[in-house]
């Protein structure tokens, strides 16, 4: 039975039970392009050797998975799906319920991030934009998924 939005269902987990995001897993068409994008362009730490989760070691060794640690400790898993086709070739059309992946950056690094994205010839979706909540730049990963770099107001 669906739960009404914002209901106080006593059957659900108490607030604060979920501690943090543990990982996100993305299917990617070209694992090497995606490794370059998330590792070299965005600067995420790729897990290698003993840092690779034991359950994924065989897939990493076979070149089917790459894992990255974000600065706040959650893991981004990239799963190679070479036959993956986008539901729509136009990346401006949102094709899933997942809207975008956003990374926070210190305000003093925001302009440098814009320059790095531009230098890597990454397609820009929107921005940079300025809002009362800060600045953001939206762009696409190699599979057309929207990624955001954002910072709080300086």
CATH class label of the largest domain: Alpha Beta
CA radius of gyration is: 18 Å
Widest β-sheet, arrangement of strands? 1-4-3-2
> Secondary-structure element sequence?
EHEHEEEHEEE
Instruction: State the secondary-structure class.
Output: alpha/beta
Please provide a written account of the structure:
The protein has 2 domains: 63 residues, Roll (2,3-Dihydroxybiphenyl 1,2-Dioxygenase, domain 1); 58 residues, 2,3-Dihydroxybiphenyl 1,2-Dioxygenase, domain 1. It has 3 helices and 8 strands, in the order βαβαβββαβββ. It is globular and about 45 Å long. Strands 1-4-3-2 form a 4-stranded mixed beta sheet. Strands 5-8-7-6 form a 4-stranded mixed beta sheet, with helices on one face. The protein has 154 residues and is an alpha/beta fold. The model has no long low-confidence stretch (mean pLDDT 85).
Layout: helices, strands, pairs:
Elements: E1 23-28, H1 31-41, E2 45-46, H2 57-61, E3 65-69, E4 75-80, E5 101-104, H3 107-119, E6 124-131, E7 134-140, E8 146-151
């Amino acid at each position: 039975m669906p739960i009404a939005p914002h209901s106080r269902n006593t059957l659900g987990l108490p607030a604060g039970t979920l501690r943090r995001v543990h990982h996100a897993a993305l299917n990617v068409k070209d694992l090497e392009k995606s490794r370059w994008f998330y590792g070299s362009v965005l600067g995420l730490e790729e897990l290698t050797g003993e840092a690779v989760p034991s359950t994924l070691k065989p897939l990493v060794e076979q070149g089917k998975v790459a894992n990255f640690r974000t600065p706040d400790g959650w893991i981004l898993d990239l799963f190679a799906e070479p036959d993956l086709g986008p539901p729509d070739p136009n990346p401006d059309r949102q094709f899933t319920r997942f809207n975008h992946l956003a990374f926070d950056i210190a305000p003093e690094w925001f302009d440098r991030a814009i320059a790095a994205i531009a230098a890597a010839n990454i397609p820009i979706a929107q921005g940079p934009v300025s809002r009362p909540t800060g600045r953001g730049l939206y762009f696409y990963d190699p599979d057309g998924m929207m990624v955001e770099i954002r910072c709080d107001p300086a």
